[in-house]
Design goal:
TspO/MBR-related_sf, mainly alpha, about 170 residues, transmembrane
């Protein structure tokens, strides 16, 4: 019999990523010349190629989903012990999903930077709360926190390079 709690935990966090990716694929980030807005802005030389983001986020969402499953199981389901860590998880996940439209659809790079700083704090709080339930969740949350730190630096650098461009703010 399939473990639907596990399957749901692995798929659920990816849903927001898929919706965000679909938003970018249907032209939400293209200009009148059919160029991607992201391709037209200045980026630091250490920006990863675009193809890296999909697999990276899929692995990270799946990893944090598994960490949430570990917490759910170790707490015995949705109960008083699970409320705080799973609420922090849900909150940081929503913040994560909201970053994509702020950056890519609204082109608000500076606001996206402030938003990702908030996400960093929420994700760290979630990771600490998960760790208190099961220390093995660190194996799944640490790569996510590292990628978020990198993404935060990238967002800031892109903002610095483009903050004088009226199409980005």
């Amino acid at each position: 019999m399939p473990n639907w709690n596990l399957i749901g935990s692995l798929i659920f966090p990816n849903v927001g990523g898929w919706v965000g990716a679909a938003t970018t694929m249907v032209g939400q980030v293209s200009n009148q010349k059919n160029n991607s807005w992201y391709e037209t802005i200045k980026k630091p030389t250490w920006t990863p190629p675009n193809w890296v983001f999909g697999p990276a986020w899929t692995a990270l969402y799946t990893g944090m989903g598994y960490a949430s499953y570990m917490v759910y199981e170790d707490c015995g389901g949705f109960n008083e012990k699970a409320v705080l860590p799973l609420a922090l998880y849900g909150g940081q996940l929503v913040l994560n999903w909201m970053w994509t439209p702020i950056f890519f659809r609204m082109h608000k790079i500076g606001w996206a930077f402030i938003h990702i700083l908030t996400l960093d704090i929420a994700a760290a709080a979630c990771a600490v709360s998960f760790f208190k339930v099961n220390s093995n969740t660190a194996y799944f949350m640490t790569p996510y926190l590292c990628w978020l730190a990198f993404a935060t630096c990238l967002n800031h650098s892109i903002w610095e390079l483009n903050k004088d461009d009226p199409k980005t703010e």
